[in-house]
Amino acid sequence: MANIAFVGLGNMGGPMAANLVKAGHVVRGFDLSEHSRKAAGEAGVQAVSSLADACEGATVIITMLPKGEHVLSVWSELKPSLASGTLLIDCSTIDVDSARKAHQLSAEANCHSLDAPVSGGISGAAQATLTFMAGGTQAAFDAARPILEAMGKRIVHCGGGGAGQAAKICNNMLLGISMIGACEAFALGEKLGLTHQALFDVVSTSSGQCWSVNTYCPVPGPVPTSPANRDYQPGFAAALMLKDLLLSQDAANSSGANTPLGAAAAALYREFEASGHGGTDFSGIIEMLRTK
Ligand code: NAD
């Protein structure tokens, strides 16, 4: 069992750290927020009040932070005191350029590193059913796999440093686009007099089928577990979808990829957030699309 430091004990990191404890690892956790430290402490994590205390003696350091700037600041602060051979795993969703810079910091300290963003949301974090998309060397991936298995059920090695973040933003760009497409189809069906159930029964078994319809249907009724049945409480908040779409557009600009539908999806989610719906589930954008 490993001696693990976990930095960033928020909505995702808190339950992920708790699952490492359940798997028998020794986990010391740090978060700037006292509230998050307290909650993690109640779940069995040894919550400490400084980054240095969390990381002293750790052979594995995991970060789960909001953005690239936070990850780079924490990894830079740690760098002078890292023991050679430490495994650094960043599970945050961040831009590909920052992920590559983080790998560089780790290499300069003779450490192993993996970018390993997740999908599966807060319920996946709590139930240890996350999917990890990993980027880094084969050696780093092999070392990280048994640790990640305590927090998720599917772990995919996508390639070298930054490849996990690249896969994550491509997936979420497609998700944002497909959700808007699903919403437009149901809004058009309403105007044409179709019931939600009739359109669902056709689309979910025909060529329009996709996760946004079959699993996360944006209208109430056909899929009882979808947020549409609870007034669009998240789920996956629109603000987080906007964050991922903007990351995809930054990556498209810096790599020269052409993503006009990704750009349109980002503009629509920006408008939805600006109208006060950042905390609404991302499928709630159907309400804005109906009135546009
Ligand atoms: P969160 O805001 O709940 O948690 C982030 C935590 O990081 C906070 O508790 C904050 O206090 C802490 N923090 C910030 N800077 C810090 C620092 N320098 N040192 C220590 N702690 C620091 O966010 P979250 O929902 O847990 O998301 C974390 C990451 O996971 C994000 O990158 C997000 O995009 C990604 N993600 C979230 C979801 C989701 O459904 N919430 C799903 C997949 C991926």
Automatic annotation (TrEMBL):
Domain 3-hydroxyisobutyrate dehydrogenase-like NAD-binding: start-end pairs = 162-289
Keyword NAD part of the UniProt annotation:
yes
Q: In which pathway does it act?
A: Amino-acid degradation; L-valine degradation
What this protein catalyses is: 3-hydroxy-2-methylpropanoate + NAD(+) = 2-methyl-3-oxopropanoate + NADH + H(+)
| InterPro entries xrefs | 3-OH-isobutyrate_DH-rel_CS, 6-PGluconate_DH-like_C_sf, 6PGD_dom2, 6PGDH_NADP-bd, HIBADH, HIBADH-like_NADP-bd, HIBADH-related, NAD(P)-bd_dom_sf
Enzyme class, broadest EC rank: oxidoreductase
| Molecular-function GO term, any one | NAD binding
GO BP annotations, alphabetical order: L-valine catabolic process
* UniProt entry tagged with the keyword Oxidoreductase: yes
Top-rank taxon, per record: Bacteria
Which key words are in the record?
A: Branched-chain amino acid catabolism, NAD, Oxidoreductase
This enzyme's EC code(s): 1.1.1.31
| Location of the 6-phosphogluconate dehydrogenase NADP-binding domain | 3-159
Q: Cite the active-site annotation.
A: K168
> What family is it from?
Belongs to the HIBADH-related family.
What name does this protein carry? 3-hydroxyisobutyrate dehydrogenase
